[in-house]
Amino acid sequence: MTQISPESRPKHVDVAIVGGGQAGLATSWYLTRDGVDHVVIEASTAAHEWADTRWDAFTLVTPNWHCRLPGYAYDGPDPDGFMTRDEVVAWLAGYAPSFGPPLLEHTRVTALTQTEDGGFTLTTQGPDGDLTWHAGQVVVATGGYHVPIVPPWAPGLDPSIAQIHSADYKNPHSLPEGEVLVVGTGQSGAQIAEDLHLAGRRVHLALGDAPRVARTYRGRDAMTWLADMGLYDTAVAQYPGGLAAREKTNHYVTGRDGGRDIDLRAFAAEGMRLYGLLDSLESPGGSLVRFQPTMREALERADSVYNSICGDIDRYIESRGIDAPPASRYEPVWEPETEPASLDLRAAGVTSVVWAIGYRPDYRWVQVGVFDGTGRPTHTRGVTEVPGLYFLGLPWLHTWGSGRFLGIATDAEHVAGRAVARVRPRRSSARAGMSVMDVAVAG
Q1: Nearest one of 133, 161, 171 to 344, comparing CA atoms
Q2: Number of separate domains in the chain
Q3: InterPro entries given for it (predicted)?
Q4: Nearest CA to 204 among 221, 218, 192, 216?
Q5: Burial label, 271 (beta-carbon count in 10 A; 0-12, 13-18, 19+)
Q6: Could you list the residue range(s) of the whole structural domain that residue 105 is in?
């Protein structure tokens, strides 16, 4: 890759990409291919979050063949397997060197403003102090997971009980001895609960409203079926509820040990304690927490989605006359007798809480009016109403595949294409006023 040194930094670039993760690097690949002058500004190191925010036993939940970036696809021996955290880190480490992006690491963008001529100014902090960049266009590729969410009353929990967010969880041994309350059943919460359960820790799990999906169905990975069915390529506006699909939680499943279902009912039958939505803390400094009576409903809804997806796959198989093993449906292996309303963590021996209830975006440094009332950027396929300002790497940016390796290339190509189209007319216009000698000198 091309590391930009202080003495070679230009005062102006056609395009600045903020964020050196897979989305930012994918955009850089297209701009590099098309010869567009640009820079990728990364606060840490390229693709660092895969090593920093994943736990030790993490695996992908999508098959390895989904791992496709522009000009760079998984070509290992197990396309239908699931890379571990360290394997993903190693795979991504080879991406930037494969095409040499103009990458500026350890440099944080602290402010982005629009200039009177329609361009942008970026203020950065890095090893060489505060610097100012000027860009004709900007691609914000920092993702949408910036600030870990915890309930506002969490600081009032008994201080003897350790609290961490899922972003900081590494392994069961990193938590104090004792029982653990995991809050949330999205992909992180469900897999962390499994990690602790398999290690022999007693887990109390507060369920959210996440759905689940079969790992393997009728002889193939369910996500491979869904890809063949075009689900990952369908635009968000075409889904029921339209743009509201962007608020949906991904289905929980795991790629661990070659991949399998995550069945919370089976965990309960083995001793895991399940609860509904965590609602409140009884009193500041205490350890009595209360739950909403939603546990049974959450289990039933997750199973219903599981079976519904299986039904969709059945219809696809039938419509194409595909020879596949027989259809089946999930049958519950455990039913709750009660809906627990509360839990005294200290009395139960709970010594730690893992918050796995997501993140909120933080774009306060983007001082351009492109946000809705929740602080999320308004856009169409990553293109905002401010000419030359784009967002990339967001879940459901355009399709279900947008937040996955499988869909990044398509999103990046679209955004990069818009950026290239704006660069070329400006260059053509500038050259129109040059003499023949000027053009020759400009190259």
Answers
A1: 161
A2: 2
A3: Auxin_biosynth/cation_transpt, CHP04046_FMN-dependent, FAD/NAD-bd_sf
A4: 192
A5: exposed
A6: 2-146+361-442
CB contact at 8 A, 84 and 97: no
| 209 and 131 assigned to the same domain | no
**Do 233 and 332 fall into the same domain?**
yes
Contact 388, 119 (CB under 8 A): yes
Query: Do 306 and 182 share a structural domain?
Result: yes
C-alpha 338/C-alpha 336 separation (Å) is 6
- Locate 230 and state its tokens: 């075009």
Query: 326, 358, 390: which is the final residue of a domain?
Result: 358
Cα distances (Å, whole numbers) of residue 184 to 8, 84, 200, 374, 379: 47, 22, 20, 21, 29
* CA–CA separation, 434 and 440 (whole Å): 10
Looking at the fold, whether 222 and 156 belong to one and the same domain comes out as yes
pLDDT at residue number 440: 26
Residue whose tokens read 């266009």: 137
Q: Could you list the mean pLDDT of each consecutive 10-residue stretch along the chain, which spans 443 residues? A: 54 94 97 97 93 93 97 97 97 96 96 96 93 96 91 96 97 97 96 98 97 98 96 82 62 96 98 98 96 98 97 98 98 97 98 95 95 92 97 89 89 97 69 32 28
Residue 331: which CATH number? 3.50.50.60
The answer on 375 and 354 residing in a single domain is no
pLDDT at 77: 96
Q: How far apart are CA 97 and CA 93, in angstroms?
A: 8
Give the global pTM.
0.91
Q: Domain boundary at 312, 329, 358, which?
A: 358
Based on the fold, state whether residues 156 and 7 are members of the same structural domain: no
According to the model, what pLDDT value does residue 243 have? 57
Q: Do 74 and 176 reside in the same domain of the chain?
A: no
Q: Please check whether residue 126 is in contact with residue 413, taking contact to mean a CB–CB distance below 8 angstroms.
A: no
Pair (41, 159) in one structural domain: no
